[in-house]
Design a protein that fits this description.
single chain; about 240 residues; Jelly Rolls; 2 domains; eight-stranded antiparallel β-sheet; disordered N terminus
Length: about 240
């Protein structure tokens, strides 16, 4: 009789332990599922700061700024000839008098940058929409630099001048980000190591990777493939370091 009672007790004990184990496994599964759901929710809710993307480095300290209110900032000036450069009405103006000529000016010698972000406002003030304006970066000398050029009819290109020849020039591409006509376009270039990124009015247009020029001056362009007497007004140039 005692042995029978022991056997019955043991059967009940095993059943109880199996029930407790099953409840433990169920609770563990519920807790694990809840943790996974929370992790997925946190990842979905995670956002980058408004001024940061996965593609673009953050701007650091301002290295240089120029509102072109005074010729003492040191950019090239010329009042006659086919290419005119002047400070006027709070802007820096470049005028290309002859057709089918492109001209550029470079920043003063003290302005030499490596990894940086440059931004400038460019306004077509006279002449045809079939024109050329934009920014030079990492200019070693007048025969070696990168150029980002736009036109007032909505096109852009990227070029590399090396030893006074163009080993790389992209095709002219149309972009709705470029404002046409007598409008102001915000032109921006990011130089970060061997990667260069090009923007118009806050929209990235293209990238270009090259390690030929690691540093240099900045510059500004004006020209026209067809008619002459195009004038581009530049204002509010800013250069930032990269964090």
């Amino acid at each position: 009789m005692v042995e029978a009672n022991k056997h019955i007790f043991f059967k009940h004990f095993l059943g109880l332990m199996r029930s407790i184990y099953a409840v433990f496994i169920l609770l563990l599964a519920l807790v694990t599922s809840a943790q996974c759901q929370q992790t997925a929710t946190d990842a979905a809710n995670m956002q980058l700061p408004s001024n940061q993307t996965l593609e673009e480095p953050l701007a650091g300290d301002i290295l240089h700024s120029d509102d072109f209110s005074s010729s003492k900032s040191g950019w090239y000036t010329s009042s006659n000839g086919d290419f005119i450069a002047s400070y006027k009405n709070g802007k820096y103006h470049l005028t290309e008098v002859s057709p089918n000529v492109w001209g550029r000016t470079f920043s003063p010698d003290r302005l030499n940058f490596s990894d940086f972000i440059v931004e400038v406002e460019a306004t077509k003030e006279a002449g045809p929409d079939d024109n050329v304006f934009g920014v030079v970066v990492r200019e070693i000398n007048s025969s070696n630099y990168y150029a980002f050029l736009l036109s007032s009819d909505g096109y852009y290109l990227v070029g590399k001048l090396q030893n006074n020849s163009w080993p790389y020039v992209s095709a002219w591409e149309k972009s709705s980000a470029i404002k046409a006509g007598n409008a102001t376009n915000l032109v921006k270039v990011v130089c970060n190591g061997d990667k260069l990124s090009f923007y118009a009015n806050g929209v990235k247009l293209t990238d270009y990777s090259d390690s030929s020029f690691a540093y240099g001056h900045i510059g500004l362009y004006a020209g026209t493939p067809s008619e002459g007497n195009v004038t581009i007004g530049y204002d509010n140039l800013t250069v930032w370091g990269i964090k």
